[in-house]
Amino acid sequence: MTDATRRRTSLFARRSWAETSRISEILRRETVGGALLLVGALLALIWSNSPWTEQYQALRDLRLGPAALHLDLSLGTWAADGLLAIFFFVAGLELKREFVAGDLRDPRRAAVPVAAAFGGVLVPALLYVLIAGAGAGRGWAIPTATDIAFALAVLAVVGRFLPPALRTFLLTLAVVDDLIAIVIIAVFYTTDLSILPLLGALVPLVVFALLVQRRVRSWWLLLPLAAATWVLMHESGVHATVAGVLLAFTVPVIRSEAAGGPAAGRGLAEHFEHRFRPISAGVAVPVFAFFSAGVAVGGLTGLTTALTDRVALGIVVGLVIGKPIGILGATWLVSRFTRADPEEGLNWLDALGLSLLGGIGFTVSLLVGELAFGAGSERDDHVKVAVLTGSLLSALLASVVLRARSRVHRQVCEAESVDRDHDGVPDVYDPDPDRPDIR
After folding, report:
1. With helix as H, strand as E and coil as C, how does the chain read?
2. What is the torsional sign of CA 28, 34, 37, 39?
3. CA 30/CA 171 separation, integer angstroms
4. Over 70: is that where the pLDDT of 197 sits?
5. Disulfide engineering: 41 pairs with which of 63, 289, 340, 383, CB 3.0-4.6 Å?
6. What are φ and ψ of residue 64, in 5° steps?
7. CA dist 340 to 10, 29, 324, 406, 425, Å?
8. For residues 428 and 416, what is the distance between their CA atoms, to the nearest angstrom?
9. What residues pair up with 63 in beta bridges, in sequence order?
């Protein structure tokens, strides 16, 4: 195989400089969100295991909202159904951005992370069902999700010198993982479907789509339409967070030709993502973590009791073992059938470290646990303990592997940051470093 062929079929090919810069900016924002997410979860765990646990439960169960619209919901439900809609709106914008204007529009580049994401869903689900049994099969999707904020926070701490291609691979995998999670929630966790509200949700959704297609940014027009779509989706029985994704999919990614086309600057999707990602990462997800992670463990005895539940054991095994096997196995199969090799300087230990990071499931895993077994139930408490335990073990194992690999990659990273022509683009991204005008 020639060098040219190997570059075309590389498993972790280097992306364009523009895409690498954009991914790096997202990583920096997500790592801050991951830290805030961790703070919210720790506060919930400390408070719920303190002498003031009843006050925590009273706050979580406090009901607010208009009863006439069936929106007299608890604060915990508002966090799961309302605030997470913002999270899924941002995820939807990122999904569309990747598939329309990002590297996922190229099937060759998309093949590996898409296959890895599907493998990372199928294997954990299978292991969960085998361990938990058919009686608890409704929770099969709990260990299938990857929490990108937590995963990127760990990566930022232990993998500073990992190649950008690996970081991009993780983010792309998580983007596809989010899409799969959205479909799972919409299809498998919709119970009592009401057709009229569902059809009614299409009206404000279509009006919202027409306005954004005309590049309307007026919040006083768009926000009421988005809220109406969310309320009607909530009334229909479909999980209200799906409304956030549908709204995001209507937002144009590329600027119109009349506005100067792609070269004229960022499109409306990127504008909305820039505005709403800080709200999602800094408010929505940490508040959800605060209201969802609070579980009274009951000391070592309570922890042992929770983890001996077959459901909890299935979740832990799914996250810690199933996720890496699924992601790494799917990646290996792609390399086997396409005869692709890792990029020069990378090896399968790098892929193992990233696949272990995929086992950090939190936000969506907790949400699916509530949908599967009911918020506040005994089994839901076991789910929370299992998700936290599995995510922690995955983070620790990934840290060991990635820290060792980061030391190896440090010298390569420093060499690739050289910019001899001082054009703001590292020479490694220039096809011909001696001719910086050709890129």
Report:
1. CCHHHHHHCCCCCCCCHHHHHHHHHHHHHHHHHHHHHHHHHHHHHHHHCCCCHHHHHHHHCCEECCHHHCCCEEHHHHHHHHHHHHHHHHHHHHHHHHHHCCHHHCHHHHHHHHHHHHHHHHHHHHHHHHHHCHHHHHHCCHHHCCCHHHHHHHHHHHCCCCCHHHHHHHHHHHHHHHHHHHHHHHHHCCCCCCHHHHHHHHHHHHHHHHHHHCCCCCHHHHHHHHHHHHHHHHHHCCCCHHHHHHHHHCCCCCCCHHHCCHHHCCCHHHHHHHHHHHHHHHHHHHHHHHHHCCCCCCHHHHHHHHHHCHHHHHHHHHHHHHHHHHHHHHHHHHHHHHCCCCCCCCCHHHHHHHHHHCCCCCHHHHHHHHHHHCCCCHHHHHHHHHHHHHHHHHHHHHHHHHHHHHHHHHHHHHHHCCCCCCCCCCHHHCCCCCCCCCC
2. negative
3. 10
4. yes
5. 289
6. -140, 155
7. 5, 32, 20, 23, 27
8. 6
9. 74
What is the rounded CA–CA span in Å between residue 197 and residue 18?
A: 42
The 10s digit of each residue's pLDDT in 390-435 is 999 999 999 999 888 777 766 555 555 544 555 555 544 455 544 4
Q: What pTM was estimated for this model as a whole?
A: 0.80
Cα torsion 146, 147, 149, 150: sign: negative
285-307 pLDDT per residue, tens = 899 999 988 887 766 666 777 88
Residue 162: CB atoms within 10 A of its CB come to 23
Task: Assess contact for 250 and 208: CB atoms under 8 A.
Answer: yes
- Per-domain residue ranges of the chain: 68-189+239-429
Distance CA 262, CA 212 (A): 17
Residue matched to tokens 């990934």: 398
Q: How far apart are CA 246 and CA 250, in angstroms?
A: 7
Burial annotation 291-317 (CB, 10 A radius, 16+ → b, else e)? bbbbbbbeeeeeeeebbebebbbbbbb
Among 3.40.50.2300, 1.20.1530.10, 1.10.150.120, 1.10.10.60, name the CATH number for the domain at 68-189+239-429: 1.20.1530.10
CB-CB contact of 24 with 164 (8 Å) = yes
Residue the block writes with tokens 């361990």: 131
Residue matched to tokens 């010298």: 411
